[in-house]
Structure formats: structure tokens, C-alpha cells
Structure prediction request, 675 residues.
Amino acid sequence: MRDGEIQASRVWKRFRADRQRQLLRDQLDRARRRMTGTSNGHGWRWALRDVDMAVGPGESIGLIGPNGSGKTTMLRMLAKVMYPYAGRVAVGGRVGALIDVRAGIHPDLTGAENVYLYGSLLGVSRREVARRFDEIVAFGELETAIDRQVKFYSSGMHVRLGFAIAAFTEPDVLLVDEVLAVGDAAFQQKCLDRMRAVLAQGTTVVFVSHDLQAVESICERAIWLREGVVESDGPVREVLGDYRRTVEQAAEVLTPAFGLVRVVKSEIRGPGDTPVSQRPLEIKLLLESPEPLWASMSIGISEGPATPIFLLGHEAMLAAGQTELRCSIPFLPLPRGRFYLWFGIIESTRDLVPWHPVGQFEVLGPELTPTPRGILRMAPVQVTPTWEVEQP
Amino acid sequence: MTAVSSRATEPPADILFRLKVRVVPAIREVWQRRELVRTLAERDLRVRYKQAVLGVAWSILTPLALMIVFTVFFQRVAKVDTGGAPYALFTYLGLLPWTFFSTSVSQGGQSLVVNNQLVNKVYCPREVFPLASMAVAAVDTALATLVLGLLFVVTGFMPKPTTVWVPVLLAVQVAFTFGVTLVLSAVLVFLRDLRHVLPIILQLGLFATPVAYGMDVVTPSLQVAYSIANPLAPVIDGYRRTMLLGLAPDWHLLGPAAVAAALWLAVGYVVFKRLEPGFADYA
Prediction:
């Protein structure tokens, strides 16, 4: 097995589904039920079922999926923190795992003491830590706080400390779990830069995140886990695209259970019916209200999730009965792809229509300008510039 | 793009995972990570001294206080045959190994539960946690041993040349302590409530071990069985014989105790390794 290689085959993992208590009383109870054969058989919950994962050296893999889909469990097994119930997990070379970087940090110790503690937890020798101490402190931007007890640190400083130490271990395989969730934007960018540098050195990276943009900016390949099963495994853009669509397909069938006003019909049209990038777009909504009311309406376009790429707001009088709402955009700033239309009438006291997806549509046109690795792109907006390059 | 999905509800029995324990590589790995043991021990010591006003004094307070109590009461109430040595020295030599044992077992026993954050999230050989607790207990014992030197000076009693046997006794003591600590730390992950019972058992252990009294209290015919059940007894007896009385350890008792201690260590290690796959799931 080469350094930096990951081979996981037919991995199964289960956890107790009942209360996680581990008391003598509970153990005796379980033993009694096993012996008398009255075990209900529902004692276990499968976190991973028959998961295969093969990663070559230097690859960058994003593990995505909703909460509870088994991403972190998988990562923990790659890190050898947990053992599978069945199957085989093998990782070649030195493994560096950032699974909750705050775990190894003791609040009663100073930042400097923690640098040594966490360093040796990650398997870096004290001499090595001492040699790179200044670099670590500078990377974490903790020069003024390093001699203070960590319990007086802000949560951002906490994460910076953890990531700074971890970033300087030089593993063959780097496992990263949601470390970017905390910390300010500038530090997030720094972490991404660091991960890219690590990738450039040929390190294998497995990155677990809910932040799909971050996954897209680091990884070439993505594995989507759904209820402990690999749903798809392939190039990052394809998998993320499928994932975004499915997440919202689930949301779409749910017509909101409350809300005074109802969306009867929605329609999205481009110049020749299908919306086209950089061309006009018309959105038509048929609303039904039981009473006349003054409504403050919001239309949003998203890649799937509830966070829109852009919002259109308008206030108008709705009559009792049906009202047709038409909204025209002279210029659609979206690239090729599938997008979702969200709608809501939200007031401070009550939601006349809760924020929910009302339709989806395909946009024709050019592909989005590719994002170089390490840059976080928040939303896909396609702008057509004119370039001039001159040699004076 | 490949879509792999197999919706079986149970894994086939032939691929069930079994942790293969290879003892030599496992021990070598712990040895490679000895710095971590040191760092974890250092962490516990630093944290303790930051919180406590008394600082270093904590290390020697327990054995010293018990020594004074035992000296005042036992010397007056029950006449203990110390073979001519001062009672304070006699009982202090029992308290040192006992305190090391009880601190190791109570702290080390809880080490996996207390460090669950690390057990859950950072990979390292799991043995380092009980080992680090034992290292802390060893530092305490080392400090308390300085007081022993002071006691020798104060009482004007000189340790006998047979003191050279001490390393042998120490080896038996450490092996037994480590074995018990390993078992308890692993079992406590799954039986959390034992944690509350542990102090009581250790309290009783103090009196079931010849700390305040001598080995001669035990009926001679039962002494071998007693030594196997409680390997600390002949160890403590050995310290007294070698340091205070100028005799060699009682091999008839120490021999069986050494075997028992080695068994504790071996069985303890096996139990620990057997339960290890569950540590991160339940800690």
C-alpha cells in the first residue's frame, strides 16, 4: 500500500439506538434480554452500510451528505479513532486528522502550552514543535494571546490555535472535518490556502463539510453519503449538482402546512420559453388569498438550498381570490445549470406564505467561469466582461 | 460516475471486523509515542498546580497525613510489631506504594472516560491515557519519597544495605498497578457507575493491605494465598524487610506475588485490547 492511499471496502458501522448510557444496570438488562431471547432486535442503528472508498495518493475527496448520513463516522474510521463493525479500512502513511480541532485543547493551559500538547497528540515531536513555534503562532494570528489561558480565548481564536498547530503537521493523508465552520472569513481563506498548499505537496485530502462551496473549491472528487450508503461518487461538480437537486426535490413536494396565501401556479419563461443566460426572464405566479391584503413579497433564485443567489422584493395589494403576479428581469445573470425558484410573503408578525421552493428551471447558456482551487465562490453569477490586454 | 448501493440490512458474517492485536508492534507504538505520555502527564500536573494554591504540597499531603494519623492512633491503640524500626517509617513505607496504587487506579481507571474528547477525536495508542495517569502518580510518589528521606534523617534511622533489592519490589508493584489500571480503565467505559464504587473499594483496600500493620498479622498458612490475592502485601513487606530490617525480601511470598502481578498485567492488557474497538463508540 502506497503512502497517501486509502482503501476502505465493504465498511459497516453500527451504534446503539437506545439510550447511550453505559451503566451496570443497563448492561445487566441487555444481558438478561439476550439470554431470555426477548431482545427486540431494534437495539442498533446502522451508521454506514457497505461503504466502499478507494482514494489514490494526492487525490482530494469531498465527503458530503445531510446530517447523520455517516460522513464523520467514516472520517473517524479513516483516522483509526473508530473501528468498523465489518469490512476493512486501510490508510497508507501518516494520517493527520482535524476532527473538531478544539478537542485536544485544554482550557486551563496557556496557548503556548497547548501548542505542545496538541502537537504531541498529533504525533509531532516537541523538538519539531519548538522549531516551528513562531510560524505556528503567526499562522494562528495569536502573537498577543499565546501566553494567556485558553479559557479566555474567543471561539474563533480557539479554532485558529487548533488549525494552526494541525496545519504544520505534515501527513500523507489529511482528514478535515468542518473546521472552517468557525472562524472569520479571512481565516477561512487562509485555511483553504493551507489545504491547497498541502495538496500541492502531494498529500491526500479528505474534506467533510456542509459548505458545498468550500468542498467545490478544494476537491476534485466528491462522495455523497445518504443514510450510510454511498449515493454517488464522481467528479465534484456532477456529484454536488445531483446533491443540490435532490436536497430540494425533497423540499419541493412539501407544500407549506401553514400560510394564509396559497401559491396556485408558478411559471418561468425565457425569450423562447426556456430561460437563457444573459437574456430577459419572466416569472409568473398565481396567488390565492382569502381576503384582500397588503403583501410584501419576496422571490428568490437559488441553486437548491434556501439561501438565494439573489432576491427580488415587491409590495402590492392582493385582492380576495386570485391574483397574478408577473416579474420581469431584463437580464438573467446565471450560468448554465438548474436553479430553483423560492417564494415567500414574510411579515414581522406572521408569514402569509412561508419561504419555500415553488418551482425549478433549467438555464441555457455558457458554463460558469471555472473557479481556481482555493477560491471560495459564494454563488454562481455569470457576468460577461470585455477584456483588454495590452503590452505598453 | 458510479452509483454503488447495496441495501442489505446486515453485513455478511465473513467480513466482520476483528481487531488483530500484535503485541510487539503495539508496544513499540506506545514507546514511539512516549512523548505524548509525558505531555499528557505534564498537562494534568500543570492544570492541577494552576488550580491549587498548595501546588506541589498536594503530592505529599495524602501519605503524610495518613502517616501522622496512623502513627498517632495505631501506635497507641494497637501495638504493631515493627521489628524495632520507628513506626512512622514502618507505616510510611506502606503508604508510598499504596498511594501510588490507589492514585493510579482511581485516576487511570477514569482516564478514558475523562479524556473522552480525545479518545473520540484524535488517534493515538489508547494505552497512553492510563499510562499518563500512572506517570502523574509516579511524580507524586517521587516527591513523597523525598519526605521519606527526611523521615530517615529525623528519626536518625539509617536504611540498611539490603535496600538494593528495592528495584525488584518496584517492578512487581508497577506491573500489578498497571495491570489493574488497564482493566479498570477499559471496563469503566462500559460500566460508568463503577466510578462511584471505586473510592469505596479503594478505602477498603487500604485496610486489606498491610499498610498500618505488618505481614505477621496474617496467619502463616494463609500468607501465600494472601500474597497472590494482594501482590502489594509482600511488596510492602519487602520494602520494610530490606530498608528497615536488613533482610532480603521473603521470596516464598514475593515469588507468587510476582507471578500474580505478571498475570494481572497480561490479562489486563488483553482485556484492554479486546474492549478497545468500543472505546470511541462509547467514551
About this structure: Chain B touches chain A through 45 residues (CB under 8 Å). Residues 36-282 of chain B form one domain.
